[in-house]
Amino acid sequence: MCNPRRVRVRASSRLTRIWQEELRRTGRASAEVAGEATLREAFGSLLGAPARRAFEAALGADTRWTWQDGAYRLDLDGGTVVYHLDTGEIEMTARLSDIVTAEAEVVRTLEGTVEVDATAEHTEKYYDDNWAGLSKSVAERSARAQAQERADRDAAEKGARQEEQERLAGRRRLAGQRDAIDAEAHAEAERRAATEAERRRGELERDAETRLLEARTGFLRPVHEVLAVAYRDAIVEYAREHGVRDIQIDESDGTLNIQFEMEA
């Protein structure tokens, strides 16, 4: 065995790391939407003059009806009935409402590339007589492997530190845009809600038309109730004007019965 010799090997490592930071913000918006359908038809003009006067007087006395803009108005569940005094028309309106909601997500992404270089050296010994198998070629391979491992490790550590710094800077940039991104998400949600509201309004209007046609009798029921009172009052007044005193009025089971006797 002779004196050992040494061999030094330098290795280099290049590392490329791609990073990405993302900020997601969600906006929500809602809108109330209504659809209605209206049916207008003659009513007062179909009555005789005395009956019409009695009907309109009965409307004015009925506390369920309110006077507004030259018409008597009655609010119903899901609609209104209006009697126009000037034309004698009945206007029935069915109204349906709903609330639509929409969401929108806005995403902001920042990305970057980190490229780092690192070098490292390692020394191994060998013997000219290859004692213990430590030849120069073996020493070179071992030194190269050790140097490369260290260079790779240094590059990874350096790259990780640089990547973290750039990520933090990216997060700060995104945080500075948070309010603007929130506003954009909210604006987009409102736009979607408006679009959905317009679509839903069309559906509600069609449904209101169907409901109005199917429920026309229900809309007219309170009108006929007032008309019955008007006929009752008109008949009673007529009877009294003609000297009738024994008047019997029975209102039951949705039927109005008036009985009296008149002398010939």
TrEMBL record:
Residues 1-261 form the FtsH ternary system domain. Residues 142-205 are annotated as: Disordered. It comes from the Bacteria. Residues 142-169, 179-205 have a biased composition (Basic and acidic residues). Coiled coil: none annotated. It holds the Pfam family fvmX2. This is FtsH ternary system domain-containing protein. It comes from Streptomyces yokosukanensis.
